[in-house]
Amino acid sequence: MQTNLRKKILDAFTKAEGEFLSGQALADIVGCSRTAVWKHIEELRKEGFQLEAIRKKGYRIIDTPDKVSQNEILLGLKTKKLGSVVHYEESVGSTQKIAHKLAQNGAEEGTLVIADEQTEGRGRLMREWHSSKGTGVWMSLILRPALPPQKAPQFTLLAAVAVVQAIQEVCTLEPEIKWPNDILLAGKKVTGILTELQAESDKINSIIMGIGINVNQKKEHFPDELQRIATSLAIEKGDNISRPALVQSILENMENLYNVYLQEGFKPIKLLWESYAISIGRTIKATTITGIIRGKALGITEDGVLKIEDEAGTIHKIYSADIELND
Description:
Blueprint (H helix, E strand, L loop, with lengths): L1 H15 L6 H8 L3 H14 L2 E5 L3 E6 L6 H5 L11 E4 L5 H10 L7 E4 L20 E8 L9 H19 L4 E3 L3 E4 L2 E12 L4 E11 L18 H5 L5 H22 L2 H10 L6 E5 L4 E9 L5 E4 L5 E4 L3 E4 L2
Parallel strand pairs: 3-4
Antiparallel strand pairs: 1-2, 4-5, 5-9, 6-7, 7-8, 8-9, 10-11, 10-14, 11-12, 12-13
């Protein structure tokens, strides 16, 4: 009940767009007493929200803390479904593991699991993902599209487009995508995306979309062996980035793309993905479990499979590989 009241108060402040709301107006909107509203206002202040209070005018929020807990994400969020439920933990082993359990227990579509720190973060092929405390975005999102399982890989590409668009909006940086799930700035990795599935033979029960973003790390946050290949938004921007604003932008862009996908299919997403891809038209080396393929990256299929044309003119379809740019 307390969580629902807090969400209604934050929704009211969001819709007020910086205008004052009286205690009585908030009480009427939320459906509680003015005393209860005041208690919630004080709790927000304790969390680091800066609220201005003026007699006969009411309250307005003038600044928010750089946290990624439920209140910071809900304030200003303009989605209808994605992020409407936020499960926040200060420190977790893996947001993916929590999201899997929530999904199995019937969590609604759009449920977001987010943490300030991950101690067992992982990427594709079970690789470790360095997730330092208070500096990044470590999140998992539950989707429940009524689709067959073979469509699931497309959602990794959809998520990559949403993250690129969010970074452009919030940071005014120009990231690029390296197939299948890496987002780069200045040639260094800034984001990884891991899509996992709960499914039956003919239908998806849930897609668990894990997104890890290096946001406000300094160079010294990265181990020596990662400094050559990894970066953060703050390093490239030269200034700290609001993590809640970035999460909100990701959710809003993803919801827009998800709606486009459900209405028009994968083609619009495919065209957007290819427009951001660093490898399309370039010579690359793909290291697969069966060997190495060198050639020109032509683009992706409707299923999100990478196409490479080798020197002999043979076109290879790459389902899983490590990609290196050769030119």
